[in-house]
Amino acid sequence: MEGRMYTLGSLPLNALRVLDVSGCGDLSPPTAGAFPRLETLRLRHCSLNSSVVQALMDAAPGLASVHLESVFFKGFRDGSGEAPGLCLRCRAVTELVVELCGMAGQDPRDGGDRGSVEIDAPRLRHLRYKGTERRLSLTSPAPDMAVLELHFVRCSYHYPVRDDDPDKTRRLFWQSVRSFSNARVLKLRVNSLEGIAVGKGRRTKLLCTFRDAVRLELEGAHHPTTSKAAAVAIANLLCCCPAVRDLRLKLSTAPPNSATKDSHYGSAFLERKDRLDYEKSVDRFMRRRLNNPVISLDGNGEHDGVPDDDDDIPGLSGHSFTCLQSSLRRVGLQFRLENNSSCMGTRLAKFFAGNAKVLEEIRVDSGNRKLCEHMNLNVERWIAPTPSKVCLKRKNLADSSWEFSENPRKSPDSRTDLNGLPTRFTISPLER
């Protein structure tokens, strides 16, 4: 359904299972129980009264999935005439998506309850929120909560950027995630890792424990000169997830609001460069396989990036984490190598190789086609000084890096889709 003004009387309401409404400026509310078989509701690029949206959900007793994308909620007031936060009552819903939505009469820059989102969904299993920094909360327990995807963007379509309260992101982030502390999978993306780091004096107040979380994904930018704060943010989440088994960190040093070149700028040159970079990576990998019966990835120190006598990551090293002692088995890292000894990604690879006691696999994703710059990570020399060591047997390296072994050694030609070529390699298994 597309248009500006809708009525629902002409729809086969008794048989409808999926209702997808796009570009709607007004909608007559349905009667109670009007959608007895409706399972999925999608609203995209709409401007509707919050009462109408609630009536749509109330009219479908079996509604399981709700997607709200670029929906502007209007026309609600509390007793004082102010616009309170939004409350979504969806008692049967198991999947809820809220992306880039706004509401009348509030400004999320205020950082208070105005503009907050309260969710009454006791059967909720999967929540994905992408939008302006605001407080999210559950008004009723959701014991089967499985996946929380939280993506705080710096600003939305409706509101410009303003940094009157530098602590707002930190406060709203931790207030939001603590409402979903029983989630088993956390996918968190923030504008800046430094913005969610919690110092020692406030950890008791802000941090929470995700006792059931087995997978944690964290994506965010950090500034090389303030990497300690970014390390503190990672340490905070490791402390909050004592049973995590799979950790994935995606790091960037690019400013989130930096200007970018036109997407067509130098496209032919950049594509050729990517193909050459990929060919170099494959050739180096194949030479390792053919010439080394046992491969330790020492690389003779080339591109190591971290001196042996500089092991610490300020804000992270020296702290005890339960997950490193008993549960963490897989670590995935995506970063760009920097031309200095403070590369955060390399230091993290070194930290987990030396401190995660049951670690089985480290996966390094270059984020581009220059895998050759990452393949010399000096894993063996990073292990704590004990008689044990980490090595990679030839057969295991071939098995775990099948992306290379199944691709031809020759350079991809002009017909090869670069999106289908891998940008990562796996160090597996780690044998102590």
TrEMBL record:
InterPro entries, sorted: F-box_dom-containing, LRR_dom_sf
Name of the molecule in the record: FBD domain-containing protein
Bias (Basic and acidic residues): 406-416
Disordered as annotated region, ranges: 402-422
Domain of life where this protein originates: Eukaryota
Classification lineage: Eukaryota, Viridiplantae, Streptophyta, Embryophyta, Tracheophyta
